[in-house]
Amino acid sequence: MQKLSDQEIQQALSTFPAWVLKNGELTKERTFKDFVAAMAFVNDVAQLAETAGHHPDIDIRYNRVRLALVTHDAGGITSKDIALAQKINSLEP
Fold first, then answer.
1. Half-sphere exposure of 57 (CA within 13 A, CB side)
2. Which end of the chain, N or C, is less surrounded by CB atoms within 10 Å?
3. Is 76 within 8 Å of 6 (Cβ atoms)?
4. Which among 53, 63, 64, 74 is positioned nearest to 27, based on CA atoms?
5. If the chain, 93 residues long, is cut into consecutive pieces of 10 residues, what is the mean pLDDT of each piece?
6. What residues are paired with 14 via a beta bridge?
7. HSE-up of residue 79 (Cα within 13 Å, Cβ side)
8. Which helix or strand (DSSP H or E) is residue 85 part of?
């Protein structure tokens, strides 16, 4: 898998602005009404990730969830990261 150029990453980010490029990763943070709602979201993300065979780093702090996507073996952002970010966005109400 080949990593995307900066231009390709910026173009993808323009289509889902809730995601940002931070420290070489695509990241997204969400706040939920409580821990149970945050965990329900994380479980939905886990199902998508498992189906895609591509897993984000997930940080859970009570009702806040931070997701980070990067293709480690490619050394950067790839089309796998973009595709999973789009699928995660489909979980949004």
1. 10
2. C
3. no
4. 64
5. 92 91 96 97 97 95 98 93 94 77
6. none
7. 2
8. helix 79-89
